[in-house]
Amino acid sequence: MFNTLSGRFLILTTLFVMLAEILIFVPSVARFRADYLQDRLERAQIASLALLADDMIAPELEAELLENAEVYNVVLRRDEMRELMLSSPPPGAVTHDYDLRDASAMTLIGDAMMRLFNPEPEVIRVIGDPVREGGLVIEITMWTAKLRAAMIDYGLNILLLSAVISVITALLLFLAVQRLIVRPIKGVVGNMKAYAADPEDARRIIAPGTNVTELREAEVTLRSLQTDLTGALKQKERLAQLGGAVARISHDLRNVLTTAQLFADRMETSEDPMVKRVVPKLVNSITRAVSLCENTLAFGKAEEPAPTMHRFNLAELTADIIESERLSAGEHDLSFAEDIPAGLNLRADPEQLYRVLSNLVRNARQAIVASGKPGEIALQASETESDWQIRVVDTGPGLPKSSRDHLFQPFAGTNRKGGSGLGMAISAELVRGHGGTLKLERSDDTGTAFLITLPRNIAE
């Protein structure tokens, strides 16, 4: 119970109410003591009236008057004269004097606490103003035993009342919290559990119903989250079904195209001029179609293995890529540049990194060749204490906006004729497998720059 929200409210409310009552208790006891002493002054003044009426009273009557007033001596100052009105021998010497005429609140509180926590009875002198202008000053001496006992009784009554008030207040707050806060929270939790059991069931999306502003905001936010998640799960299911269908079609189509490729290869031996002119284009088209099918199958099956990490020289790997792409560029005016430290060794999967860099360089080469203008492709690398950075920069025509917006999305990141739209998606996936990132730094009329970042702390 005490680990629940309402249980903690119950405990905290009880403690806070008790604290408030204690803060009230101290001045209340001080006020009770002041009233008690003032009452003894009034009783003593009334007792002294008997002496004023008759200058000579019997010792028995004087003792009775003092006993009823609970004092030992009564001194009344009238007309600038200090007169002992009633007197009886006290049990000891006077230890403290208390003047109630101009005592501050803090003085009264301090005197009350000293009396409350001092168990030894004492004889004290109390000075005050007579009632109804019955003189200038009245003084009494009294025993503190009854005063302290009365203060303790009064304090216990206050503490008992405080405890009752605390319990009642805490119970009422407990019930209010249960109804206004805990019950709606349990409703939200119950809905979350029911939704988690079947998140694709739109009927389980929460319907905000509480009137508490903060809880209603939470319910509205949860409804929005559940609605988006349900829609995303349905879309994911449809995409998974579509992906399965595309994979099956690609598999069958690849078999058909492979057969067609075999026939096209045989046709290359024909002496017919028309056939010789058409067959190369046919073979290229079939090759691109087979490549598209294979890339689609590989991407759909998520067959990329985890990278096999070991150290290798980056300059040697990029040299192989540049040599291959230089041959592919043929007679086109295209130059390659390398700015890679000869001793730069990084830890990664060389085969996967080769595929990533080869894809970036090939895309740059194809874009420059397609533009019909001269160009340059540069590979740059550097290292810091935390990562390795590799850049592929070209002076080509740049990527169109539609390609930049969907660059790393499968089947959507290319406008190049014959492109599958999978190269950049696969490259980004391979880099993420190394714990790194692949991002487009810039792409405009002056060219395109890609940045690969591989973390050293993970690799090491």
From TrEMBL:
The chain crosses the membrane at residues 6-30, 156-177. Residues 248-458 form the Histidine kinase domain. InterPro entries: HATPase_C_sf, HATPase_dom, His_kinase_dom, HisK_dim/P_dom, HisK_dim/P_sf, Sig_transdc_His_kin-like_C. It is an enzyme of class 2 (transferase). GO terms for molecular function: ATP binding; phosphorelay sensor kinase activity. It comes from the Bacteria. PROSITE patterns: HIS_KIN. This is histidine kinase. The gene is zraS_2.
